[in-house]
Amino acid sequence: MLIFNTLLVFALVCVLIFVSILYFHSLSEHELNPPELKNNPSWDVIMTELTPLLSFTNAKGGSKKRHYEVEIDTSKNFNSANKIIFSGVAEGDEFVTEVKISEEKQLKDKTQYWWRARTLGSTGAKSDWAISRFFVDIASDDHFMNLVRAKVKNVEVSAGYNSKNIVDYDDPGLVTFWQSPPPEGYDHWVKFDLGESTTISRIWILSNPTDADGWLKDFVLEASDDGKKWREIPETRRKNNDTFRNIIDFPPTRARYYRLKIYEFIGYAAQINEVILYSPGTPPVPKAPEEDYILIIGNEHNGFTFTDLAKFIEEIKPGLKTITVPYFEASLEMIKKLKTKPLAIILSGNNADYPNLPMFEHNGEFEIIRESDIPILGICAGHQFLAMAYGYSRARSMGWSDISAIAPEARRTKIKVLQGDPIFAGMPDEFVAPEIHGWAVAEPAGEFEVIAKSTYVQAQKSKKRLIYGAQFHFEIKVSYNQAALFVENFLKLAAGEKK
Description:
This protein is an alpha+beta fold and 499 residues long. The protein has six helices and 28 strands. It has helices at 2-30, 309-316, 332-337, 363-371, 381-388, 485-498; strands spanning 36-40, 45-47, 53-57, 67-73, 84-90, 96-100, 111-120, 130-136, 147-149, 154-157, 178-179, 188-206, 216-224, 231-232, 245-265, 271-272, 274-280, 293-298, 321-326, 344-347, 376-379, 395-402, 415-417, 430-431, 437-441, 448-453, 457-462, 467-470.
């Protein structure tokens, strides 16, 4: 009898545990959250390929082995004949899931697409849809923009605080902002004094990238010769604007003063993170040294390099000169006009989030990657640009940031060499190097192959030309860096090719 009672109690306990598991599992399924569509493409990104790789951040909540349903359509209502459906998409890695548009279902050029995704639970539960949109324009990155940044001498605002943030063009400046006061009783405007009469034909405006609060809803750009009498540039008028970034082209207009007049905005106060005014034209060709030199393309948003890259190169190769050109002034035409050609080109890293950048500024750099016969080495962002030159979606956020270069406690993943290559001469088959990044190459271009990996692509090379990319920072001086030889080997290869 005692044994029977014990077995009965044990059975009851098992039933209670089983019921509890079912209850909590059912509860978690009803609390399914949708994934976040802020990876690549995020809202209103311009995709430069017809078969993009769509990436989204995994949902939170529900069972660990989640699945997703993804739909892409030219209709906001997702009811057209163009709809593409991905059903039962298994979660990718720990942070991000991807779906790839096939050649058979390739998208249409010059077309806006809506896309949405939802989480599927194992019991049949479904989350709400997360919705985003992007635009396809495969020719939008083909050529240098033929524009130069206009220099703003002074910026004034109608009211509010932190007006200097509007023209703060470094990487962190993309997340700082000017905010206007509440709407009652105020005009809202931002005035730019260029110091002299200047022709302008494009304006870039970045507002709140996080949510719609502060987006400019109704606005126009005005011009003035004296800063008092204003004339509207009608092609810049936007009503019912529903995006946080605007690229507006208009007929070349000449004036000393320009004013962004804001009639309506979303939320409590207007927010502007950045404005850049552009003049038609091309930048001056830099003066090239007579002797061997390295051309560094500075990919920080202000045109500099995140690390002291020029000094590093000149230290490891005494006598080798360097010149640094901002990425927004680099182009294939500039390379052709240099009096003496560089021994090699190095593309630096940056510390900015691509969806917040005016990516058309990189068009000249993309031209160089695709067409130049000069040896190229891309570092961090420069490595990602080797892939993005063949399609914007080929790089994406990892969903987490590797900061092993600046945080001693950060994980330092072993980087594994996948194939023997002279770029790794003298380096171990598994090595550790400092990293500072949150994005990575998701899909190398057809010309490129992966030659080193950790949990993501760490190094790639072209099969046709002397071009390499490294996600890690071989140039950062820390005790555990085992990759310093990477750049020395590259410079040897470049020198050998010149001979």
